[in-house]
Write a structure and sequence with these properties.
alpha+beta, Lipocalin, 3 helices, globular
Amino acid sequence: MAAFTGSVSALTLLCNPAFGDDRLTPGQREAAARVFVGTASCDGNQQVTVAAVPGMPGHFVLTHQKTVARLVAQETTSGAVRLEDAKLGLLWIQIPAKSMLMNSKLGRRVVDSCITPEQALASLPPDPAQPSVLDWGQPDPIDY
């Protein structure tokens, strides 16, 4: 698959279930369930948008500037979310604090410090007014 410029016809093609292979492992499907979709704000006032391909679990369309590519969820041992288009060498890595787009063929980051709304919420400090699930200051309610 090749990267397409941001035309509507390219996006339509990339979202077509007939374009690509949907034979994913259970691990790939599990990883896909953790992908944050939507628009992430990145360094350099850039944006990356990730959208699920309708009818194709585990497949996503990523847009950044004029690049539109279809990436597939990959299994990882680290817990990071990894979307990849091996032919293009594009790699979207999502960890709890941020995401980044990499070009593995060139061995460099395309854009870094991408933050989705979910990642922004996760990075907020806890609200001291809200009780923690593990509130060690409370006595044990069980009477021995």
